[in-house]
Amino acid sequence: MRGQGLIILGVAILIGLAAVFLANSYLGRVEQQQTTSPQGTVKVAVASVPLEFGAPITPDKVRLVDWPAGSLPEGTFSSIPQLLPMNHTRVALRPMAANEPILRSKISGEGGRAAISAVLDPTKRAVAVRLSDVAGVGGFVLPGDVVDVLVTRTPMNPNGNSQQITDVLLQKVRVIAIDQDASDSTDKPAIGKTATLEVAQVDAQKLALAQQVGQLSLALVNPASETSPTVETVSTEDLRDGAYVGGYSDGAPRFQPPPLVSAPPAGPRAPARKPANPDLTVMIVRGTKDSSYEVGRYVAR
Q1: d(CA 196, CA 176)
Q2: Interval 237-264: pLDDT, tens
Q3: Which of 41, 228, 197, 46 shows the shortest CA–CA distance to 128?
């Protein structure tokens, strides 16, 4: 029995070694075929130097490289005449790094220019709002950032009083330009006088009206944050640390429910007492008890 066990163990070892040898041989042949077999490549135009927003694309800023045909991005150019036909000018609408493929979606049309409308969402509008160093978050609002828009105004109450309030006008709005800079690769803070925001059509109307009735401010928002389904109004009554009244009152009369009246006690109702005539009644108080006596009216003779 012991001899048979040793034989079986030896056979198993030999079979395992043979399996390892065959697997290594197969993988080696596959790797050799992959390294020796020519792969299909095509010419692709890439940027030879970094290109910023609005930079003109000229032949000296473009070079052709071999690119695997199986992983070719959509919208590439295979030659410089295809990219710049008849020496027509194009400009970059998106920042591009060196050796990055030049795609149709990142450049203007033939003879085009660096226009904000070319990078604007087809369903949105571009609206410019006035900024100050404070309203623009000290220059840290840059193209590509997401902000909330706040409006501070002084509405007139029906009672003639007024106080300043601040509302959240819009939430999570994309900034597409600061002054004349629309490059989203800008990383240095710069104080600008105007910010161009990408908003819906109705929101564009709100921004135009808000600039006439109050002052706008921007608040930087994390792009991953969610919009709040409800927004609050803050008034001058809330300008204390940790204080919030919880709702701005415009002075309009509010509905006041009538006071509750308790029901009369059950049982037989006592007969109504006829009120005494104050001219013919005298009240005498003895301790905690009082008694009323009717007297005759004095008539002068």
Answers
A1: 6
A2: 777 776 665 555 555 444 444 454 555 5
A3: 197
